[in-house]
Amino acid sequence: MTFHISKPVLALLLLGTVAPPSSHAFRNGNTPQTTPAVSTSTKTNTDPVVTEAPMPFKWPIIGTLPEFFSRGGVDGLITVYESMYKDYGPVYRMSLMGDDEIVFSDPQIFDQILRKEGKFPIGGAEGISTFTDYYVENDMQHAVKSMGHGPDWKEWRSSLNPDIFVLWDTYLPSIADACAKISKVAGREVTEEKTLEISDFWSRAAFDMFSAIIYGESPQTTDSRKATAEDIEFVIASKKAFDVTGSLVTDPLQKVFGGDLYKEFVVNIEKTITLSNKRGMENIRSAKETSAKHQAAAAAQAKADGSDSDSSSGGCPITAIQNKLTGRNANIPTENLNPSFIERLVSRGELAPDAITELQGPLLMAGVDTTAYAMSWFFLNMASNPEVQTKLAEELSEKLNGADLTTVDQIESLTYLQACYRESHRLTPVAPISAKTLEQDITVVSGGKAYEVSAGQRMSLNLRGMPMDPEFVEDPTSFKPERFSEDAVKARKGTPAALALDHPIMHDPFGKGKRRCIGANVAKAEMFCLAARLLQDYEISLVDPNEAVHSPTKSWSAKQKLMQLADPYPAMLLTPRA
Ligand code: HEM
User: Fold this and answer.
1) Which CATH superfamily is domain 140-273+365-429+510-576 in?
2) Which of 101, 164, 376, 483 is most buried, taking the most CB atoms under 10 A from its CB?
3) What is the per-residue burial (b if ≥16 Cβ within 10 Å, else e) of 2-19?
Protein backbone atom coordinates (compact mmCIF):
# COMPACT_ATOMS: atom_id res chain seq x y z
CA MET A 1 0.00 0.00 0.00
CA THR A 2 2.96 2.24 0.36
CA PHE A 3 4.51 1.90 -3.08
CA HIS A 4 3.68 3.54 -6.35
CA ILE A 5 5.35 4.53 -9.56
CA SER A 6 3.21 7.06 -11.27
CA LYS A 7 4.55 6.76 -14.83
CA PRO A 8 3.98 4.11 -17.50
CA VAL A 9 5.66 0.82 -17.00
CA LEU A 10 5.88 0.35 -20.73
CA ALA A 11 8.41 3.14 -20.77
CA LEU A 12 10.05 1.66 -17.70
CA LEU A 13 10.48 -1.71 -19.34
CA LEU A 14 11.93 -0.22 -22.51
CA LEU A 15 14.30 1.84 -20.45
CA GLY A 16 15.17 -1.15 -18.35
CA THR A 17 16.87 -2.66 -21.34
CA VAL A 18 19.23 0.32 -21.58
CA ALA A 19 22.55 -0.69 -20.06
CA PRO A 20 22.68 1.21 -16.79
CA PRO A 21 25.80 3.18 -15.98
CA SER A 22 27.97 1.99 -13.15
CA SER A 23 26.64 3.69 -10.08
CA HIS A 24 30.10 4.72 -8.92
CA ALA A 25 31.05 6.35 -12.20
CA PHE A 26 27.89 8.36 -12.54
CA ARG A 27 27.04 9.65 -9.10
CA ASN A 28 26.05 13.28 -9.05
CA GLY A 29 29.02 14.43 -7.04
CA ASN A 30 27.67 13.67 -3.59
CA THR A 31 29.83 11.34 -1.59
CA PRO A 32 27.83 8.35 -0.40
CA GLN A 33 27.90 7.71 3.31
CA THR A 34 29.16 4.20 3.82
CA THR A 35 28.54 4.10 7.55
CA PRO A 36 25.03 5.01 8.64
CA ALA A 37 25.20 8.09 10.83
CA VAL A 38 22.53 7.44 13.39
CA SER A 39 21.99 9.47 16.49
CA THR A 40 19.95 8.28 19.42
CA SER A 41 18.63 11.80 19.94
CA THR A 42 17.30 14.42 17.56
CA LYS A 43 19.08 17.14 19.60
CA THR A 44 22.74 17.95 18.85
CA ASN A 45 25.14 20.41 20.48
CA THR A 46 25.90 22.24 17.26
CA ASP A 47 23.38 23.35 14.66
CA PRO A 48 22.87 20.57 12.16
CA VAL A 49 24.47 21.22 8.79
CA VAL A 50 22.05 21.36 5.90
CA THR A 51 23.11 18.46 3.71
CA GLU A 52 22.06 17.23 0.30
CA ALA A 53 21.46 13.50 0.36
CA PRO A 54 23.38 11.54 -2.29
CA MET A 55 21.64 10.02 -5.27
CA PRO A 56 22.66 7.96 -8.29
CA PHE A 57 23.17 9.73 -11.62
CA LYS A 58 19.95 11.51 -12.59
CA TRP A 59 19.15 11.31 -16.29
CA PRO A 60 16.87 13.84 -17.95
CA ILE A 61 13.18 12.81 -17.67
CA ILE A 62 13.77 9.25 -16.48
CA GLY A 63 15.83 10.29 -13.46
CA THR A 64 17.45 7.41 -11.56
CA LEU A 65 15.36 4.79 -13.29
CA PRO A 66 18.29 2.89 -14.88
CA GLU A 67 19.87 2.51 -11.43
CA PHE A 68 16.50 1.34 -10.09
CA PHE A 69 16.30 -1.36 -12.74
CA SER A 70 19.92 -2.40 -12.40
CA ARG A 71 19.27 -3.12 -8.72
CA GLY A 72 16.14 -5.25 -9.20
CA GLY A 73 13.33 -2.98 -10.44
CA VAL A 74 9.71 -3.34 -9.35
CA ASP A 75 9.90 -7.11 -8.80
CA GLY A 76 13.09 -6.85 -6.79
CA LEU A 77 12.14 -3.89 -4.62
CA ILE A 78 13.57 -5.47 -1.48
CA THR A 79 16.98 -5.78 -3.18
CA VAL A 80 16.74 -2.21 -4.47
CA TYR A 81 16.29 -0.74 -0.97
CA GLU A 82 18.82 -3.10 0.64
CA SER A 83 21.56 -2.46 -1.89
CA MET A 84 20.95 1.32 -2.01
CA TYR A 85 21.41 1.44 1.78
CA LYS A 86 24.68 -0.49 1.48
CA ASP A 87 26.03 1.71 -1.31
CA TYR A 88 24.58 5.14 -0.50
CA GLY A 89 24.13 5.02 3.26
CA PRO A 90 21.32 5.93 5.62
CA VAL A 91 19.93 8.86 3.61
CA TYR A 92 19.71 8.96 -0.18
CA ARG A 93 17.46 10.12 -2.98
CA MET A 94 15.87 8.48 -6.00
CA SER A 95 13.88 10.04 -8.81
CA LEU A 96 11.74 7.80 -10.98
CA MET A 97 10.26 9.58 -13.99
CA GLY A 98 9.78 12.79 -12.01
CA ASP A 99 8.52 10.97 -8.90
CA ASP A 100 11.09 12.08 -6.31
CA GLU A 101 11.77 10.15 -3.16
CA ILE A 102 14.10 10.72 -0.21
CA VAL A 103 14.86 7.57 1.74
CA PHE A 104 15.83 7.64 5.42
CA SER A 105 16.94 4.84 7.69
CA ASP A 106 16.74 6.62 11.05
CA PRO A 107 13.20 6.04 12.39
CA GLN A 108 13.47 9.19 14.52
CA ILE A 109 12.98 11.16 11.33
CA PHE A 110 9.53 9.63 11.12
CA ASP A 111 8.68 11.19 14.50
CA GLN A 112 9.68 14.61 13.15
CA ILE A 113 7.50 14.07 10.07
CA LEU A 114 4.52 12.90 12.11
CA ARG A 115 4.72 16.01 14.29
CA LYS A 116 4.10 18.06 11.14
CA GLU A 117 1.27 15.89 9.86
CA GLY A 118 -1.45 18.43 10.62
CA LYS A 119 -5.17 17.83 10.85
CA PHE A 120 -5.68 16.20 7.49
CA PRO A 121 -2.56 14.17 6.62
CA ILE A 122 -1.99 12.53 3.26
CA GLY A 123 -2.58 8.76 3.48
CA GLY A 124 -0.49 6.00 1.94
CA ALA A 125 -3.56 4.37 0.39
CA GLU A 126 -4.28 7.54 -1.64
CA GLY A 127 -1.53 6.57 -4.10
CA ILE A 128 -3.54 3.57 -5.29
CA SER A 129 -5.33 5.47 -8.02
CA THR A 130 -7.04 2.42 -9.55
CA PHE A 131 -9.33 2.22 -6.52
CA THR A 132 -9.91 5.98 -6.28
CA ASP A 133 -10.71 6.24 -9.99
CA TYR A 134 -13.13 3.33 -9.77
CA TYR A 135 -14.93 4.84 -6.77
CA VAL A 136 -15.20 8.25 -8.50
CA GLU A 137 -16.40 6.75 -11.79
CA ASN A 138 -19.03 4.70 -9.97
CA ASP A 139 -20.19 7.54 -7.74
CA MET A 140 -19.22 5.70 -4.54
CA GLN A 141 -19.20 8.86 -2.47
CA HIS A 142 -18.46 7.28 0.89
CA ALA A 143 -15.53 5.26 -0.50
CA VAL A 144 -14.10 8.32 -2.29
CA LYS A 145 -13.91 10.16 1.04
CA SER A 146 -11.50 7.52 2.37
CA MET A 147 -9.04 8.21 -0.45
CA GLY A 148 -8.66 11.96 0.12
CA HIS A 149 -7.12 14.05 2.89
CA GLY A 150 -9.54 16.82 3.77
CA PRO A 151 -12.56 17.19 6.05
CA ASP A 152 -14.36 14.47 4.04
CA TRP A 153 -11.66 11.94 4.92
CA LYS A 154 -11.91 13.00 8.59
CA GLU A 155 -15.68 12.51 8.52
CA TRP A 156 -15.25 9.05 6.93
CA ARG A 157 -12.55 8.03 9.41
CA SER A 158 -14.53 9.29 12.45
CA SER A 159 -17.60 7.37 11.34
CA LEU A 160 -15.71 4.05 11.26
CA ASN A 161 -12.91 4.44 13.81
CA PRO A 162 -14.91 3.63 16.96
CA ASP A 163 -16.31 0.32 15.71
CA ILE A 164 -13.31 -1.07 13.86
CA PHE A 165 -10.19 0.53 15.36
CA VAL A 166 -11.14 1.23 18.97
CA LEU A 167 -13.47 -1.68 19.72
CA TRP A 168 -11.31 -4.25 17.90
CA ASP A 169 -11.27 -6.65 20.86
CA THR A 170 -15.06 -6.96 20.90
CA TYR A 171 -14.69 -9.14 17.79
CA LEU A 172 -12.33 -11.68 19.37
CA PRO A 173 -15.04 -14.31 20.05
CA SER A 174 -16.21 -14.26 16.41
CA ILE A 175 -12.65 -14.31 15.07
CA ALA A 176 -11.73 -17.22 17.36
CA ASP A 177 -14.83 -19.12 16.23
CA ALA A 178 -13.86 -18.57 12.58
CA CYS A 179 -10.32 -19.80 13.39
CA ALA A 180 -11.63 -22.94 15.10
CA LYS A 181 -13.66 -23.73 11.97
CA ILE A 182 -10.67 -23.04 9.72
CA SER A 183 -8.38 -25.25 11.79
CA LYS A 184 -10.88 -28.10 11.90
CA VAL A 185 -10.66 -28.56 8.13
CA ALA A 186 -7.16 -27.20 7.42
CA GLY A 187 -5.35 -30.56 7.44
CA ARG A 188 -7.97 -32.21 5.26
CA GLU A 189 -8.15 -29.37 2.70
CA VAL A 190 -4.43 -28.61 2.38
CA THR A 191 -2.69 -31.90 3.05
CA GLU A 192 -5.01 -34.93 2.90
CA GLU A 193 -7.33 -34.07 0.03
CA LYS A 194 -5.25 -31.19 -1.36
CA THR A 195 -8.36 -29.25 -2.39
CA LEU A 196 -6.65 -25.94 -1.58
CA GLU A 197 -3.19 -24.63 -2.42
CA ILE A 198 -1.68 -23.25 0.77
CA SER A 199 -1.51 -19.66 -0.62
CA ASP A 200 -5.25 -19.81 -1.45
CA PHE A 201 -5.83 -21.24 2.00
CA TRP A 202 -4.33 -18.08 3.60
CA SER A 203 -6.57 -15.88 1.41
CA ARG A 204 -9.69 -17.80 2.31
CA ALA A 205 -8.75 -17.88 6.00
CA ALA A 206 -8.32 -14.08 5.93
CA PHE A 207 -11.69 -13.75 4.18
CA ASP A 208 -13.42 -16.01 6.72
CA MET A 209 -11.99 -14.10 9.68
CA PHE A 210 -12.70 -10.63 8.29
CA SER A 211 -16.24 -11.67 7.31
CA ALA A 212 -16.76 -12.87 10.88
CA ILE A 213 -15.88 -9.33 12.05
CA ILE A 214 -18.07 -7.52 9.55
CA TYR A 215 -21.02 -9.90 9.36
CA GLY A 216 -20.76 -11.81 12.66
CA GLU A 217 -20.07 -15.28 11.32
CA SER A 218 -17.61 -17.08 9.11
CA PRO A 219 -18.70 -18.02 5.57
CA GLN A 220 -16.34 -21.03 5.91
CA THR A 221 -14.74 -20.67 2.51
CA THR A 222 -11.79 -22.74 3.81
CA ASP A 223 -14.16 -25.72 4.00
CA SER A 224 -14.79 -27.00 0.47
CA ARG A 225 -17.75 -29.05 1.73
CA LYS A 226 -19.53 -26.01 3.16
CA ALA A 227 -18.41 -23.02 1.07
CA THR A 228 -21.10 -21.63 -1.21
CA ALA A 229 -20.33 -20.94 -4.86
CA GLU A 230 -21.15 -17.26 -4.29
CA ASP A 231 -18.67 -16.94 -1.42
CA ILE A 232 -15.95 -18.64 -3.43
CA GLU A 233 -16.67 -16.30 -6.33
CA PHE A 234 -16.43 -13.39 -3.88
CA VAL A 235 -13.06 -14.42 -2.44
CA ILE A 236 -11.56 -15.19 -5.84
CA ALA A 237 -12.78 -11.89 -7.34
CA SER A 238 -11.52 -9.73 -4.47
CA LYS A 239 -8.11 -11.47 -4.52
CA LYS A 240 -7.89 -11.02 -8.28
CA ALA A 241 -8.86 -7.32 -8.08
CA PHE A 242 -6.26 -6.80 -5.33
CA ASP A 243 -3.49 -8.62 -7.22
CA VAL A 244 -4.26 -6.96 -10.54
CA THR A 245 -4.21 -3.57 -8.79
CA GLY A 246 -0.60 -4.31 -7.85
CA SER A 247 0.24 -4.62 -11.53
CA LEU A 248 -1.91 -1.65 -12.61
CA VAL A 249 -0.26 0.72 -10.15
CA THR A 250 2.95 0.27 -12.09
CA ASP A 251 1.22 0.22 -15.48
CA PRO A 252 -1.21 3.15 -15.76
CA LEU A 253 -1.29 2.90 -19.59
CA GLN A 254 -3.52 -0.14 -19.13
CA LYS A 255 -6.31 2.14 -17.92
CA VAL A 256 -5.69 4.82 -20.55
CA PHE A 257 -5.94 2.29 -23.40
CA GLY A 258 -8.44 -0.06 -21.74
CA GLY A 259 -5.91 -2.94 -21.74
CA ASP A 260 -6.77 -6.53 -20.78
CA LEU A 261 -5.32 -6.13 -17.30
CA TYR A 262 -7.51 -3.11 -16.62
CA LYS A 263 -10.56 -4.96 -17.95
CA GLU A 264 -9.72 -7.83 -15.59
CA PHE A 265 -9.54 -5.37 -12.69
CA VAL A 266 -12.94 -3.86 -13.55
CA VAL A 267 -14.65 -7.26 -13.89
CA ASN A 268 -13.32 -8.39 -10.53
CA ILE A 269 -13.84 -5.21 -8.52
CA GLU A 270 -17.40 -5.04 -9.91
CA LYS A 271 -18.05 -8.60 -8.76
CA THR A 272 -16.60 -7.79 -5.32
CA ILE A 273 -18.64 -4.60 -4.92
CA THR A 274 -21.87 -6.21 -6.20
CA LEU A 275 -21.54 -9.23 -3.93
CA SER A 276 -20.53 -7.17 -0.89
CA ASN A 277 -23.43 -4.76 -1.47
CA LYS A 278 -25.82 -7.69 -1.62
CA ARG A 279 -24.32 -9.18 1.55
CA GLY A 280 -24.38 -5.76 3.24
CA MET A 281 -28.04 -5.14 2.49
CA GLU A 282 -28.97 -8.59 3.80
CA ASN A 283 -26.99 -7.95 6.98
CA ILE A 284 -28.43 -4.49 7.58
CA ARG A 285 -31.94 -5.90 7.11
CA SER A 286 -31.21 -8.74 9.49
CA ALA A 287 -29.62 -6.36 12.08
CA LYS A 288 -32.78 -4.26 11.99
CA GLU A 289 -35.01 -7.32 12.30
CA THR A 290 -33.02 -8.64 15.27
CA SER A 291 -33.22 -5.23 16.93
CA ALA A 292 -36.99 -5.02 16.34
CA LYS A 293 -37.46 -8.56 17.64
CA HIS A 294 -35.56 -7.78 20.84
CA GLN A 295 -37.44 -4.53 21.35
CA ALA A 296 -40.78 -6.34 20.90
CA ALA A 297 -39.70 -9.03 23.38
CA ALA A 298 -38.58 -6.38 25.88
CA ALA A 299 -41.86 -4.50 25.45
CA ALA A 300 -43.87 -7.69 25.98
CA GLN A 301 -41.82 -8.44 29.10
CA ALA A 302 -42.36 -4.90 30.40
CA LYS A 303 -46.09 -5.23 29.80
CA ALA A 304 -46.17 -8.54 31.66
CA ASP A 305 -44.26 -6.85 34.53
CA GLY A 306 -46.77 -3.99 34.54
CA SER A 307 -44.32 -1.32 33.38
CA ASP A 308 -44.44 0.57 30.05
CA SER A 309 -41.80 3.23 30.54
CA ASP A 310 -39.35 2.20 27.81
CA SER A 311 -40.13 -0.60 25.41
CA SER A 312 -36.48 -1.27 24.55
CA SER A 313 -35.29 -1.43 28.16
CA GLY A 314 -38.01 -3.52 29.73
CA GLY A 315 -38.53 -0.56 32.06
CA CYS A 316 -35.07 -0.80 33.59
CA PRO A 317 -33.33 2.62 33.56
CA ILE A 318 -29.84 1.04 33.44
CA THR A 319 -30.77 -1.03 30.39
CA ALA A 320 -32.36 2.05 28.86
CA ILE A 321 -29.04 3.91 29.19
CA GLN A 322 -27.11 0.91 27.91
CA ASN A 323 -29.37 0.67 24.90
CA LYS A 324 -28.41 4.19 23.95
CA LEU A 325 -24.69 3.34 24.26
CA THR A 326 -22.77 2.32 21.22
CA GLY A 327 -19.44 1.64 22.93
CA ARG A 328 -17.88 -1.43 24.54
CA ASN A 329 -20.81 -2.04 26.90
CA ALA A 330 -23.53 -1.37 24.40
CA ASN A 331 -26.52 -3.63 24.59
CA ILE A 332 -26.63 -4.36 20.87
CA PRO A 333 -29.02 -7.20 20.06
CA THR A 334 -27.36 -9.97 18.11
CA GLU A 335 -27.76 -13.62 17.26
CA ASN A 336 -24.01 -13.89 16.68
CA LEU A 337 -21.27 -14.55 19.25
CA ASN A 338 -20.82 -10.77 19.54
CA PRO A 339 -22.31 -7.79 17.70
CA SER A 340 -20.89 -7.65 14.18
CA PHE A 341 -19.42 -4.48 12.68
CA ILE A 342 -22.61 -4.01 10.63
CA GLU A 343 -24.79 -4.46 13.72
CA ARG A 344 -22.67 -1.90 15.57
CA LEU A 345 -22.96 0.63 12.73
CA VAL A 346 -26.72 0.08 12.44
CA SER A 347 -27.08 0.49 16.20
CA ARG A 348 -24.90 3.63 16.24
CA GLY A 349 -27.27 5.16 13.71
CA GLU A 350 -24.79 7.72 12.34
CA LEU A 351 -24.53 6.29 8.84
CA ALA A 352 -27.41 5.79 6.44
CA PRO A 353 -27.96 2.17 5.32
CA ASP A 354 -26.73 2.95 1.79
CA ALA A 355 -23.46 4.33 3.22
CA ILE A 356 -23.02 1.20 5.37
CA THR A 357 -23.71 -0.94 2.32
CA GLU A 358 -21.21 0.97 0.22
CA LEU A 359 -18.32 0.93 2.64
CA GLN A 360 -17.96 -2.84 2.94
CA GLY A 361 -16.59 -3.55 -0.56
CA PRO A 362 -13.63 -1.17 -0.09
CA LEU A 363 -12.98 -2.50 3.41
CA LEU A 364 -12.95 -6.07 2.12
CA MET A 365 -10.58 -5.00 -0.65
CA ALA A 366 -8.30 -3.32 1.90
CA GLY A 367 -8.61 -5.89 4.66
CA VAL A 368 -8.51 -9.41 3.27
CA ASP A 369 -5.52 -9.90 1.02
CA THR A 370 -3.32 -7.52 3.04
CA THR A 371 -3.82 -9.81 6.03
CA ALA A 372 -3.32 -12.90 3.86
CA TYR A 373 0.03 -11.53 2.60
CA ALA A 374 1.27 -10.79 6.15
CA MET A 375 0.11 -14.20 7.40
CA SER A 376 1.67 -15.99 4.46
CA TRP A 377 5.10 -14.58 5.47
CA PHE A 378 4.55 -15.43 9.11
CA PHE A 379 3.71 -19.08 8.40
CA LEU A 380 6.52 -19.34 5.84
CA ASN A 381 8.92 -18.22 8.59
CA MET A 382 7.37 -20.77 10.95
CA ALA A 383 7.76 -23.59 8.42
CA SER A 384 11.32 -22.46 7.65
CA ASN A 385 12.32 -22.49 11.34
CA PRO A 386 10.91 -25.66 12.96
CA GLU A 387 12.71 -25.05 16.28
CA VAL A 388 11.02 -21.62 16.60
CA GLN A 389 7.68 -23.18 15.72
CA THR A 390 8.12 -25.85 18.41
CA LYS A 391 8.95 -23.18 21.02
CA LEU A 392 5.88 -21.18 20.00
CA ALA A 393 3.66 -24.29 20.10
CA GLU A 394 4.95 -24.90 23.64
CA GLU A 395 4.06 -21.36 24.70
CA LEU A 396 0.59 -21.73 23.18
CA SER A 397 0.00 -25.04 24.85
CA GLU A 398 1.23 -23.73 28.23
CA LYS A 399 -0.78 -20.48 28.15
CA LEU A 400 -3.92 -21.61 26.31
CA ASN A 401 -3.99 -25.30 27.11
CA GLY A 402 -5.89 -26.11 23.93
CA ALA A 403 -8.36 -23.20 24.18
CA ASP A 404 -9.08 -20.61 21.50
CA LEU A 405 -7.61 -17.14 21.79
CA THR A 406 -10.54 -14.92 22.82
CA THR A 407 -9.26 -12.26 25.22
CA VAL A 408 -6.81 -9.36 25.32
CA ASP A 409 -5.22 -10.83 28.47
CA GLN A 410 -4.41 -14.01 26.56
CA ILE A 411 -2.85 -12.00 23.72
CA GLU A 412 -0.73 -10.06 26.21
CA SER A 413 0.46 -13.25 27.88
CA LEU A 414 1.70 -14.70 24.55
CA THR A 415 4.99 -12.82 24.45
CA TYR A 416 6.76 -15.31 22.17
CA LEU A 417 3.92 -15.15 19.63
CA GLN A 418 4.23 -11.36 19.61
CA ALA A 419 8.02 -11.65 19.21
CA CYS A 420 7.54 -14.05 16.26
CA TYR A 421 5.27 -11.53 14.50
CA ARG A 422 7.77 -8.70 15.15
CA GLU A 423 10.59 -10.84 13.75
CA SER A 424 8.51 -11.85 10.73
CA HIS A 425 7.89 -8.16 9.99
CA ARG A 426 11.61 -7.32 10.42
CA LEU A 427 12.91 -10.11 8.20
CA THR A 428 10.12 -10.39 5.63
CA PRO A 429 8.02 -7.19 5.66
CA VAL A 430 5.05 -6.86 3.31
CA ALA A 431 6.64 -3.66 2.00
CA PRO A 432 10.31 -2.56 2.08
CA ILE A 433 9.44 1.01 3.07
CA SER A 434 7.00 2.98 5.15
CA ALA A 435 6.19 6.19 3.28
CA LYS A 436 4.89 9.65 4.13
CA THR A 437 4.20 12.80 2.16
CA LEU A 438 3.56 16.23 3.69
CA GLU A 439 1.74 19.20 2.22
CA GLN A 440 4.38 21.56 3.58
CA ASP A 441 8.18 21.81 3.34
CA ILE A 442 10.09 20.23 6.20
CA THR A 443 13.68 20.13 7.43
CA VAL A 444 14.45 16.86 9.16
CA VAL A 445 17.51 16.17 11.27
CA SER A 446 19.44 12.93 11.69
CA GLY A 447 22.99 12.23 12.85
CA GLY A 448 23.77 15.96 13.13
CA LYS A 449 22.75 16.64 9.54
CA ALA A 450 19.68 18.49 8.30
CA TYR A 451 17.80 17.53 5.13
CA GLU A 452 15.38 19.90 3.45
CA VAL A 453 12.41 18.19 1.84
CA SER A 454 9.88 20.01 -0.31
CA ALA A 455 6.13 19.69 0.13
CA GLY A 456 4.71 16.78 -1.85
CA GLN A 457 7.96 14.81 -2.01
CA ARG A 458 7.74 11.23 -0.81
CA MET A 459 9.76 10.46 2.32
CA SER A 460 10.37 6.76 2.88
CA LEU A 461 11.69 4.94 5.89
CA ASN A 462 13.92 2.14 4.64
CA LEU A 463 12.86 -1.03 6.44
CA ARG A 464 15.76 -2.84 4.72
CA GLY A 465 18.32 -0.45 6.19
CA MET A 466 19.05 -0.57 9.91
CA PRO A 467 16.93 -3.68 10.69
CA MET A 468 19.09 -5.69 8.24
CA ASP A 469 22.45 -4.08 9.08
CA PRO A 470 24.85 -6.35 11.06
CA GLU A 471 26.28 -3.20 12.67
CA PHE A 472 23.02 -2.82 14.59
CA VAL A 473 21.37 -6.24 14.46
CA GLU A 474 23.26 -9.44 15.16
CA ASP A 475 22.94 -12.10 12.47
CA PRO A 476 20.24 -10.07 10.65
CA THR A 477 19.40 -12.66 7.99
CA SER A 478 18.32 -15.24 10.61
CA PHE A 479 14.84 -15.53 12.07
CA LYS A 480 15.37 -15.03 15.82
CA PRO A 481 12.29 -13.90 17.77
CA GLU A 482 14.45 -14.00 20.94
CA ARG A 483 15.83 -10.62 19.92
CA PHE A 484 12.46 -9.19 20.99
CA SER A 485 12.43 -10.79 24.46
CA GLU A 486 11.91 -8.40 27.38
CA ASP A 487 15.53 -8.86 28.50
CA ALA A 488 16.99 -8.29 25.04
CA VAL A 489 14.92 -5.12 24.56
CA LYS A 490 15.97 -3.82 28.00
CA ALA A 491 19.65 -4.56 27.38
CA ARG A 492 19.83 -2.50 24.16
CA LYS A 493 17.77 0.48 25.38
CA GLY A 494 19.29 3.81 24.30
CA THR A 495 21.57 2.24 21.65
CA PRO A 496 21.26 2.48 17.85
CA ALA A 497 20.22 -1.20 17.91
CA ALA A 498 17.13 -0.14 19.85
CA LEU A 499 16.29 2.31 17.06
CA ALA A 500 16.73 -0.43 14.46
CA LEU A 501 14.51 -2.89 16.30
CA ASP A 502 12.31 -1.22 18.90
CA HIS A 503 11.30 2.19 17.60
CA PRO A 504 7.47 2.06 17.40
CA ILE A 505 7.45 2.56 13.62
CA MET A 506 9.48 -0.66 13.31
CA HIS A 507 6.92 -2.75 15.23
CA ASP A 508 4.42 -3.52 12.48
CA PRO A 509 3.45 -2.82 8.85
CA PHE A 510 0.47 -0.51 9.47
CA GLY A 511 2.03 2.97 9.36
CA LYS A 512 1.82 5.51 12.18
CA GLY A 513 -0.03 8.69 12.99
CA LYS A 514 -3.53 9.76 12.05
CA ARG A 515 -3.48 7.71 8.83
CA ARG A 516 -2.38 4.51 10.55
CA CYS A 517 -4.27 1.60 8.98
CA ILE A 518 -7.81 1.63 10.34
CA GLY A 519 -7.80 -2.18 10.30
CA ALA A 520 -4.46 -2.55 12.16
CA ASN A 521 -5.96 -3.82 15.40
CA VAL A 522 -8.43 -6.25 13.88
CA ALA A 523 -5.79 -7.52 11.46
CA LYS A 524 -3.42 -8.22 14.37
CA ALA A 525 -6.23 -9.93 16.27
CA GLU A 526 -6.94 -12.15 13.25
CA MET A 527 -3.29 -13.05 12.77
CA PHE A 528 -2.77 -13.87 16.45
CA CYS A 529 -5.99 -15.90 16.72
CA LEU A 530 -5.22 -17.97 13.63
CA ALA A 531 -1.61 -18.64 14.65
CA ALA A 532 -2.78 -19.61 18.15
CA ARG A 533 -5.34 -22.09 16.82
CA LEU A 534 -3.42 -23.58 13.88
CA LEU A 535 -0.14 -24.05 15.73
CA GLN A 536 -1.86 -25.76 18.65
CA ASP A 537 -3.48 -28.16 16.18
CA TYR A 538 -0.80 -28.68 13.51
CA GLU A 539 2.87 -28.77 12.82
CA ILE A 540 3.40 -26.77 9.64
CA SER A 541 6.31 -27.84 7.44
CA LEU A 542 7.66 -27.19 3.96
CA VAL A 543 7.11 -30.00 1.46
CA ASP A 544 10.65 -29.24 0.29
CA PRO A 545 12.89 -27.94 3.12
CA ASN A 546 15.05 -26.39 0.44
CA GLU A 547 12.35 -23.71 0.06
CA ALA A 548 13.06 -22.22 3.51
CA VAL A 549 13.38 -18.43 3.70
CA HIS A 550 17.11 -18.66 4.48
CA SER A 551 17.88 -21.37 1.89
CA PRO A 552 20.34 -20.16 -0.78
CA THR A 553 18.86 -22.63 -3.29
CA LYS A 554 15.15 -21.87 -2.86
CA SER A 555 13.13 -21.61 -6.06
CA TRP A 556 10.98 -18.63 -5.02
CA SER A 557 11.86 -14.98 -4.59
CA ALA A 558 10.19 -12.03 -2.88
CA LYS A 559 8.30 -10.10 -5.56
CA GLN A 560 6.49 -6.80 -5.26
CA LYS A 561 2.79 -7.07 -6.10
CA LEU A 562 0.56 -4.62 -4.20
CA MET A 563 2.60 -6.02 -1.32
CA GLN A 564 5.63 -8.33 -1.13
CA LEU A 565 4.87 -11.94 -1.95
CA ALA A 566 6.96 -15.12 -1.97
CA ASP A 567 6.53 -16.15 -5.59
CA PRO A 568 5.82 -18.99 -6.30
CA TYR A 569 4.64 -19.59 -2.74
CA PRO A 570 6.15 -22.89 -1.51
CA ALA A 571 3.93 -25.88 -0.75
CA MET A 572 3.39 -26.81 2.91
CA LEU A 573 2.16 -29.78 4.93
CA LEU A 574 -0.14 -29.58 7.92
CA THR A 575 0.47 -32.53 10.25
CA PRO A 576 -1.86 -32.87 13.26
CA ARG A 577 -0.04 -32.52 16.59
CA ALA A 578 -0.29 -35.51 18.87
C1 HEM B 1 -1.82 -7.15 7.72
C2 HEM B 1 -2.82 -6.50 7.16
C3 HEM B 1 -2.77 -5.06 6.77
C4 HEM B 1 -1.69 -4.28 6.40
C5 HEM B 1 -0.24 -4.68 6.28
C6 HEM B 1 -2.20 -2.94 6.13
C7 HEM B 1 -1.41 -1.85 5.79
C8 HEM B 1 -1.89 -0.57 5.65
C9 HEM B 1 -1.07 0.59 5.43
C10 HEM B 1 0.45 0.60 5.33
C11 HEM B 1 -1.89 1.66 5.31
C12 HEM B 1 -1.47 3.11 5.03
C13 HEM B 1 -1.07 3.78 6.34
C14 HEM B 1 -0.61 5.22 6.17
O15 HEM B 1 -1.10 5.93 5.29
O16 HEM B 1 0.28 5.62 6.94
C17 HEM B 1 -3.25 1.17 5.44
C18 HEM B 1 -4.37 1.96 5.36
C19 HEM B 1 -5.66 1.46 5.40
N20 HEM B 1 -6.04 0.16 5.69
FE21 HEM B 1 -4.80 -1.36 6.12
N22 HEM B 1 -3.56 -2.95 6.32
C23 HEM B 1 -3.94 -4.21 6.72
C24 HEM B 1 -5.20 -4.63 7.08
C25 HEM B 1 -6.35 -3.87 6.94
C26 HEM B 1 -7.68 -4.29 7.32
C27 HEM B 1 -8.06 -5.61 7.99
C28 HEM B 1 -8.52 -3.29 6.95
C29 HEM B 1 -10.01 -3.27 7.10
C30 HEM B 1 -10.61 -2.69 8.09
C31 HEM B 1 -7.72 -2.22 6.38
C32 HEM B 1 -8.20 -1.03 5.89
C33 HEM B 1 -7.41 0.07 5.62
C34 HEM B 1 -7.96 1.37 5.26
C35 HEM B 1 -9.42 1.68 5.04
C36 HEM B 1 -6.85 2.24 5.14
C37 HEM B 1 -6.89 3.74 4.85
C38 HEM B 1 -6.93 4.47 6.19
C39 HEM B 1 -6.84 5.97 6.08
O40 HEM B 1 -6.31 6.42 5.08
O41 HEM B 1 -7.27 6.66 7.02
N42 HEM B 1 -6.40 -2.61 6.39
N43 HEM B 1 -3.22 -0.19 5.67
Assistant:
1) Cytochrome P450 (1.10.630.10)
2) 376
3) bbbbebbbeebeebbeee
